[in-house]
Structure formats: C-alpha cells, structure tokens
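Give me the fold.
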Amino acid sequence: MKGRILKGIAGFYYVETFDEKAYECKAKGIFRKSNLKPLVGDNVEIDIIDDEKKLGNITEIFPRKNQLLRPPVANVDQAVILFAIVKPNPSYNLLDRFLIQMRQQNLPVIICFNKQDIATKEEQQELYDAYEKCGYKVLFISVREEKGLDELKELLKGKTTTLAGPSGVGKSSLLNKLVPDADMQTGELSKKIERGKNTTRHSELFFVEELFGDDRDSDGSKQEDDRGDNGTYVIDTPGFTSLEMRDVTADTLMQYYPEFVEYEPLCRFGGCSHIAEPDCGVKEALSQGKISQVRYDNYKVLWEELKNMRVDYSKKARR
C-alpha cells in the first residue's frame, strides 16, 4: 500500500495512505544498511502488519525530487521562511544562511515577515529593499490581524510547502490559520495509532483543506479533498537558531547573492571577492544604492567566517 510520511518520532514513522488511513510504521533494516533514512514528505510503500491496530512496515522509499538537510524533509515544491519584522528583530545572518541552503536545492522561497501590525513603514521598507532585489517574493503579514494571509494562501495552493523559521516569530499561529484543525489532525492521528500526542518537536506534514478561491462548487459547497500530487500541503518544522552552511566556500559564496551578478562583469579582476579589491563593480553598485547595504554587510560577515574556516582547516592539515 502506498502512502506519505506525515511525521517521524523516535524511529517510528506515521504514514497516511491515500485512503486517509494512518499507520504507525517501522523502517526495514535495509534502509539503515544503505544509509537511507525516511523523511517527512517521503512517498513510500508499506506492508500492513495489523490493520486493526494500524501497524505496518515501510518497505520502499520512492525516488525523491529533492531533499533538505535543515529542516530534514523531502519532496517539497517551495519554502516559506517566516521571520518577524520586530519583536524579535530579524537575524539577517540566519535568513541569508537559509536562502543559501534553498538556493543550493534550486527551491523557490517566499520570504514572509510577520507582525506587520506593530512595525513601522520604515522597518518594512528596509526589509523589502534588501530582499526584493534578490529576486525573492517578499510578503508582509499580520497573523494576529489576518492581514496578507489570502495572498499567502494563493501562493501555497496546489503545492507542498515547508514552513520554517526561528522560534518566537508566529510560526505556530500562522499554521493554525492555514490549517485550523492542525491540533485536531494530530489528535486524530493519535487516535488512529492509539498513542498519546507526542510533544517532542518534530517536522509534520499537514493537508490543507481547500476552503478558499476556486475550491468551492458554484452552490458554495466544498469540493472533495484533493490529496496527492495536486493537493496543498504544509510541513511544519521546529524553530531554529542557527544553520550550518555546507558545500559553500569563501570563493563560491558570491554565487548565492544573485543581486551581484549584473555588476560582476564591471569588476577589474576576474574572480573578484568584492571585499578588498579596487575597481569592484559590486562595491560601486553598493555605493550607488543599487545593492542593499544590509545584504552586503552580511555577505562580508559570512565571507570572513568561511575564509577563517579554510585557514583553520589548512593549519590542521599541516599538523
């Protein structure tokens, strides 16, 4: 029987089949031998051990179209990264690290800034100017006042979206607006597998019922749930405070700042790092306000970090 992994906790995977039954499953030992770990979002084949108790084994993991390391999820179409405009103020360093990771996966990103209701226009404009020029969709919302949510819902429609961001920015509140019965879905899953609700933080896949836009019939009644590849899903993920950059060096960091590209041909030196070289097209664009000072300052911080990592590695290699 085929299904999709909703969540994984302590070696148990909760799989919803396409007839909407939920099974508690263990992964076959063959996956450990091949160093393949099931992930939330995986499409899998399961063998039913006990249909009454809803127990099974995962016997096959179907090929993934993509896989993220942080958060560890699979088969997503896009990411929504949620930060607060204020309280807490956004960490540009953390946001850029996340954008770098998503760019490595060629995954579209929607940058969503919450708490619009308590932020000034100047604070919003600074964020917009910094990230809109990078080619990302930037939204300002207020979960508390439900502003901007209709536009966000339209962007989620028919896709599987991973929802990520640091703690304290309103991620859980947003999920409850997008999936009003999220707690109920978790509770129903607990009933189906006869286990109590686990409060451990983990990634979890939610089906979003199509209750907006064109998903109602002409008489106003709700259409049948569109589960599967064409359905709307949101993966809730634990909050994070740091992200490790993998497979990025000081020499390749510039590739993850797309707003630099059009100015790099104006650099005097090939392979310009845009840090200390003279006649740098990127720094000239910065002085003219064509590149965000916020983004460039953070680029320098990350560049120095990666450069120092290379130096430390070279010292260790010589010992």
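The chain has three domains: 2-61, 78-236, 253-318.
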